[in-house]
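If your schedule permits, I should be very grateful for your opinion on a structural question. Thank you for your consideration; the sequence and its tokens are set out here:

===
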Amino acid sequence: MTIPVILDVDTGIDDAWAIWSALRSPVLTVLGITTGYGNADVETTTRNTLLITELANADVPVVPGAAKPLWTPWEGPVPDFHGHNGLGDAELPPVFRKPTPGDAAQFIRETVRAHPGHMTIITVARLTNLARALLYDPELAPMIRQLVVMGGAAFCPGNVTPVAEANIWGDPEAAQLVLSAGIPTILVGLDVTHQARLTRDMVEGMRRNDPASQLFYQATRFYLEAYRRISPVFEDWCPIHDALAVFVAEDPGLVQTERYPVAIETTGRLTRGMTVVDSRSGPYPPSPVEVAVGLDEPRFLNAFLSRSGFFPNPV
């Protein structure tokens, strides 16, 4: 039996890898992909998502969603990391598929209610779409089997501020609402995604003989250079954050997790968007949030490289 999933994205470069990996998974059945603002505006992320599904020859509903955070203005796209078109300014072919009519939050609600107790939701974007679904339908949370969130910086620095990771920082109110809803959750944050490393040598070894491989090669080279510019730590590699969440959804044993009470700071001038993990010992009630703290990187990379079909010699 496969695992039915909804994938929630803001399709930039690592989202594209996540979508590609999910659509080619022998374990996951993608019932729909919901889109939102983040790496680019929702119109661009929706177009990029449709493009990846088209290149994968996957007939999957793509449902547009939030254009801004729940209650605050949107800070705008991040072209420094994802280019002005969200895919590293790679030359993009025309897209012929159209988005599915409707709204992402409503699609999440209807799909979960159609499969109560069976759905896994993988979020690799701001948590606005899922938060809106929970606000519309307060009885929805217990019907979700599993939530895998690419987001947070539990025991490491953030990547937008010293303490905040981008997907949480982008809508902390939504993140707090979702993480306090009682859904069984694996938090796949920077603590482990910075161990999911795609090296320059791997990228240069990609085949480039069809539209999909050419797009992923061009986009990922841009991503490598974007990371190299921000820190010498990333001299010859980039993290593929979002793809890791997909592989964790199908094989949670890829990561070592520890269960903690987790909250998101929403008001602090310096700490807004911080993932607050209560690691004190004490008689606390069981938390539904498992925080990923370690990764079996060789096993992940072997699975990721092999599944993509772009690397002639997977590790």
Observations:
- The CA atoms of residues 147 and 185 lie 5 Å apart.
- The chain has a mean pLDDT of 97.
- The chain is about 35% helix and 20% strand.
